[in-house]
Amino acid sequence: MFLHRLFGALIVTALAMPVVADNTIVLPSTTRLLVVDGKDASNQRRTRLLTLDDGRHQVVFQLRSMVRDGSESNMFTSSPYIMTFDLSGDQTFTISAPKLKTKRDAENLARSPGTHITLTSQQGEKTPFEFSVLNRRGLAIGGDVVEDIQKFNLSDNPAAVRSMAGTVFVAADNSNNNQVLSLPPVSAKAGSKDQSTSEHMLQYWYNQADEVTRARFLRWVAESQLAEG
Known about the structure:
Elements: H1 2-16, E1 22-26, E2 31-36, E3 39-40, E4 49-53, E5 55-69, E6 72-77, E7 81-87, E8 92-96, H2 103-111, E9 118-121, E10 130-133, H3 136-139, H4 145-152, E11 168-172, E12 178-182, H5 192-208, H6 211-228
Parallel strand pairs: 1-8
Antiparallel strand pairs: 1-4, 2-3, 2-5, 5-6, 5-7, 7-10, 8-9, 11-12
């Protein structure tokens, strides 16, 4: 009897749980996947299908193809492309890119890639997206493309998603060179030099938290101020 009631309760609970919609992204056959939602996707480098839930997503990839240049053939690899878009509807979306057969095809793509790449729903409707090209020479510190994307996501570029920047932020030194730094732990005795770092870290984790955690944190701040006063 107890097991029967327990099984029934589990069924009711399962039926009451919200349904999470999953969307499928079909990638071009020449895709070399790099980063998805700020995380390393090298283990999915050759995948042609992505499953993503409803909401905002960012996909970073390159296009690779053998192209003819006269009587010779060479491998063309594009710069990393960044696509940021919103998904909904539990449906299939397709990223389309031009066929790359000749050196001229590759040059046309490199000249204005954002105009040659599209995102369409399964109904054939164009889905809006933000697009950017990752200039690794200007952004890379070390060779980690994930770190480059985290740095990019702290910029004002329309394709950037600040919540996907991880724990890396950009700091400008006196020589106007940007450095990528990891956020240190917040010190209870943080002085003026640590203020901007601590503030950024608090903002990051606040934005990452759910509504219940945010409310609990704000209540703790209010109670701490009353205790100090």
